[in-house]
Amino acid sequence: MFRLTNINGRSAFQFDDGFVDVAKVAGDESLADPMNAIARFGELSALYAKAGASPKSSGTPGVCVPKPAKVFGIGLNYKSHAAESNMELPPAPLTFTKFPSCLAGPTADVELSGDMVDWEVEIVVVIGKGGRHIAESAAWSHVAGLTLGQDISDRKVQLGGKPPQFSLGKSFDTYGPIGPAIVSVDAFPNRDDIALWCDVSGERMQEARTSNLIFTIPYLVSYLSSICTLESGDVIFTGTPDGVGMARGRLLKAGDVIDSGADVIGALRNVCVAGK
Ligand code: ZN
Questions:
Q1: Residues around ligand 1, an ion, CB closer than 5 A
Q2: Domain check: are 241 and 139 in the same one?
Q3: What tens digit of pLDDT does each residue of 222-257 get?
Q4: What is the DSSP string of 14-59?
Q5: Domain assignment present for 63
Q6: Is 25 within the bounds of a domain?
Q7: Alpha-carbon distance 14 to 28, whole Å?
Q8: How close is the Cα of 149 to the center of ligand 1, in Å?
Q9: In angstroms, what is the span from residue 190 Cα to ligand 1's centroid?
Q10: Residues 47, 76 within the same domain
């Protein structure tokens, strides 16, 4: 198993007591680029085991997937969230993009774009090995690991027109905090049943398990690859469960603290600040 993140733009392994530079432990500078390390995920478990004995350094993780070619978002992928949104269940994964420039680190501030900005905690898939027409049965072998994300959404931009449009409302800079690390699939006791939750300023807002996804992670990888060639480093936000702010009539304001968590993966803490 491994936990891969990004410290000052370089690939780093995350441990409880600090970080180890991946390229240094490997003696291979080409692994310093986090995107290269993701593409070579098959080598990382052995290096992680070796790094366990190395001295650890402190640091603040940046974006664990800094330059993905594609970032997919999946809408309405939990029945509970479709119901609270008064929307019918989609017959196929409802897919939009979050443009990669929206990605942010696990402790980055969220710069609010208005007064209708919402939280959405999600498990995020990081593709390790690309491909086209990937069979559902082979899909997990294409996944480098999983991380946690917030699909922050400006509901006014997203839903202000008919028909709605998702991609821009979810692509403001800072609207995609992810992290704190990409965790290899073998680190999960059950990769198809991962708990995730979200607190806003101390109040529990969302709590679910990925066993309740309508379209499973293997299905999403297979489906998306039937349309687009998937590449190493591509990112899939798998959808959010119920409990978003829009359904509660309580949206984000400056000073709110968004605490997101998931089993095995860890936590994000993002403070909301007023945008320009
Ligand atoms: Zn979402």
A1: 120, 151, 240
A2: yes
A3: 999 999 999 999 999 999 999 999 999 999 999 999
A4: EETTEEEEHHHHHT-GGGGSHHHHHHTGGGHHHHHHHHTTSPPB--
A5: no
A6: yes
A7: 18
A8: 9
A9: 23
A10: no
pLDDT digits (tens, 9 = 90+) for 161-206: 999 889 999 999 999 999 999 999 999 999 999 999 999 999 999 9
- Can you give the CATH number for the domain in which 167 is found? 3.90.850.10
User: Structure tokens of 109?
Assistant: 């501030």
Q: Cα of 207 to ligand 1 centre, how many Å? A: 14
Ligand 1 centroid – CA 118 distance (Å): 10
Distance from the alpha carbon of residue 96 to the mean position of ligand 1, in angstroms: 9
Domain count, the chain: 2
Task: Note whether 269 and 199 are within 8 A (CB).
Answer: no
Domain that holds residue 38: 3-51
In whole angstroms, give the CA distance from residue 199 to residue 203.
Answer: 5
The answer to whether position 14 is within a domain reads yes
